[in-house]
Amino acid sequence: MPALQAHNQWLKFILIVAGILILGACTTMKPPPPGIGGSIDWNKIKGWTSDRHADSWPALMNNCRVLSNKKAWSRICSAAQSLDDPDHNQVREFYQAWFVPHVVHGADGKSSGLITGYYEPLLFGSTEPDEDYRYPIYRRPGNLLKIDLSDVYPELKSKRIRGRVEGDRVISYFSRKQIDSEQNPLEGLELLWLNDRDDVFFLHIQGSGRIKLTDGRTVGAGYADQNGHPYVAIGRVLIERGELEREEVTLFTIREWLRDNPEQARALLNENPSYVFFEIRERVEQGPIGSLTAPLTPERSIAIDPTVIPLGTPIWLQTSLPGNPEQPFNRLLIAQDTGGAIKGPLRADVFWGNGDRAEQMAGLMKQPGKLIALLPKAVSIEE
Q: 38, 305, 314, 327: most buried, per Cβ within 10 A?
């Protein structure tokens, strides 16, 4: 009996020590690093089988126009081009055959980040200025330098650095405040004139738009370049000043504030020094061209941070419908664009297309969401 008691006490001691070790291991377990993490099974993707996968096929085919010569994509694109008008099930099976899903992690192991939306607005403009059309958008300036120092400073590889020559120095390019000042350093580079100052500003935010001209034509204004200054969200500035509450900030409430506060509006716009230059896109029906240099597909293209997620990557988005947090919005999109405000692993911007619904959805979208990156099998295996 004493031997049995001693055995039980020893067993209890072992269990206590094991428990302490397990608890210690749990408390010291580090969260996964930010970025694309480990692979998961397809059956772990919430809503995967319910999506209309064939709706993403045009975006995937646009990918292949650009990526088919890439090692990881050549076989994928060859297989995709052999399919003739595939249905939803065929497309879903295609993704499952050629890609591997990977969870995207944020800082401190977070699994959810901010998802916003953008669209292609319809604006009104003229090829000549007058009293109604007096707010210019500019073409890319010839003195705008692209500066690449990544061979000397690798940490600058992901930075968009722009500048101009002044004497024997290269200095930062003109800011929004400088460009829109009375000195007007870009005079003579006007591409078109619009009839609304705020429309010009929001065109910079959206990156592209359709412009109905006074001569009856409608042309596209596409992104050509940017001045290299960091993007500052004026909605955040209004929150910090106590002008708007965080939960009420949308495209529409910011527009309303600008209209209601005309004397302060210009100073607020100048808080965002980033400035976009444009080029004319005659084929309006094609839609805007994203950073991948492929046309964007409404509700199937998404902007991401390319330093985290490679352009062209299919992305499974898990979030809610804009303005309706109870309605799931889970679907497959393709990472075909970038943006000045889209920084970090769990930051993404859904392209909604054009028209009233697109404006409504994009203007309201600002909710948490999860991202799952579908990496080509060859890439996933190599990693």
A: 314
The pLDDT, as a whole number, for residue 286 is 80
Question: What angle (nearest 5°) sits at the alpha carbon of residue 35, between those of residues 383 and 79?
Answer: 50
Classify the phi-psi angles of 226: left when phi > 0, otherwise alpha if psi is within -120 to 50, otherwise beta: beta
- For the chain, the maximum distance between any two Cα atoms, rounded to a whole number of angstroms, is 105
Q: Which residues pair with 145 in a beta bridge?
A: 163
CA 66-280-229 angle, to 5 degrees, is: 80
What are the counts of helices (DSSP H) followed by strands (DSSP E) for the chain? 11, 17
Question: How many Å apart are CA 323 and CA 293, to the nearest integer?
Answer: 31
Average predicted confidence (pLDDT) for the chain: 91
Outline where DSSP puts E strands in the chain: 35-39, 99-105, 113-120, 122-126, 135-138, 145-146, 162-166, 169-172, 190-194, 209-213, 218-226, 276-281, 301-303, 314-321, 324-337, 348-354, 366-376
Q: Who's near 323: CB < 8 A, 6+ residues apart?
A: 360, 364
Dihedral sign, Cα of residue 176, residue 181, residue 184, residue 189: positive
Taking only the tens place, the pLDDT of each residue in 45-57 is 999 999 999 999 9
* Tokens read off for 313: 């990557």
What does the buried/exposed string (b/e) look like for 133-149 if buried means 16 or more CB atoms within 10 Å of the residue's CB?
bebbbbbebeebbeeee
Give the separation between CA 372 and CA 318, rounded to whole angstroms.
8
The bridge status of strand 348-354 relative to strand 113-120 is parallel
